[in-house]
Queue: 2 jobs
Job 1
Amino acid sequence: MAAIDTTLDQVFQEWDDKKFKLHSTPPESQGAKFGVWGKLIAQRQAIFADVWRPDRMKLLKKMGKTEGATVESVRGTLTPLARADFIHDLRTWGVPDQQANAAGTLVEVK
């Protein structure tokens, strides 16, 4: 098994053990930033926060064949991955790019 696989196994075990998780800031805290899309963004964000789990294949693609990858370096890729997935989810619901990209900043893995 490659070193990256071992590292990913450790990251996923820590995810399952809830040593870190996806956190989200309520869209309401952003005021009128999202306009008419605010309610939909809030609904999708609540669902997304409950069901999102890092995708192993996406992580492998993002990390490449990085030798010497550490748990911390893999964890560092999780927030951008979660944000990209959330933005994609919002776009599939018709949320315009500007609001979707702004809403992406509301999720963070820590």
Job 2
Amino acid sequence: MEYFGGWNICDFSQFTIFSIIFLFNQFGIEDTFVVMPEMRIILVILSLIKLLFFLRVFDKYGFLVQIISSCCIDLIPFIMFYMIALFMFSIIFVVLNMEIDVENNMLRHVGFF
């Protein structure tokens, strides 16, 4: 289990998500799977993290990678609070039956969220 800690979890997650996308593409069910764009976004983010891992080797970029990783870790509480607030305001709009204005009726195909 020690192997799946740190940077190796990024490798394992990247391989797993890429395998799922590849299998869905091979079986032709890629279009019916709802979270396929999100999986591709996660794959790109994991690729960026892997690139930062390889940039750590160089002296000039090592410090930059440490700063980026510490900033991302420090942003986690803010992002969690932001998501909770966004979720609560979304629920409030649904409870109050907030509709799209008549002037913006051309946006009927766009969902509330």
